[in-house]
Automatic annotation (TrEMBL):
Species annotation: Adineta steineri
Domain of life the protein comes from: Eukaryota
Protein name listed in UniProt: Fatty acid desaturase domain-containing protein
Residues that span the membrane, as ranges: 6-26
Source species taxonomy: Eukaryota, Metazoa, Spiralia, Gnathifera, Rotifera
Domain called Fatty acid desaturase: residue spans: 8-95
GO biological process: lipid metabolic process
Pfam families according to UniProt: FA_desaturase (PF00487)
InterPro entries: FA_desaturase_dom
Length: 104
């Protein structure tokens, strides 16, 4: 294929697959679900309410992992497709604003 050795193509494809898997695991699974340390020990139960979402804007979130970092929103509204998770993030932001105004 275009005079590139097949071994180089296979290695390139393997490296890309490995890098994308590590990125999805780190940003999409570990970061949002990492347990909170209390008194030097990890919590044993991780309910979905404690999952975390990033605070980046929606374009960076899209480029990072297709909004995979909007994890709280994903667990709160699991039926929403990934391309609409940023809308859920906006809904959550507005809900938090209303809650903070009501507490004043």
């Amino acid at each position: 294929i275009f005079s590139v050795p097949i071994a180089n193509i296979i290695i390139y494809m393997l490296i890309c697959g490995l890098c994308s898997s590590l990125r999805l695991f780190y940003f999409g699974t570990y970061i949002p679900h990492r347990p909170i340390v209390l008194n030097g020990t990890f919590e044993k139960i991780m309910p979905w309410e404690k999952s975390k979402s990033s605070n980046v804007n929606r374009w960076i979130s899209f480029l990072c992992c297709y909004h995979f970092d909007y994890h709280w929103e994903h667990h709160r509204w699991p039926y929403v497709p990934w391309w609409d998770l940023w809308k859920c993030k906006e809904i959550r932001r507005k809900m938090n604003e209303k809650k903070s105004q009501a507490q004043k």
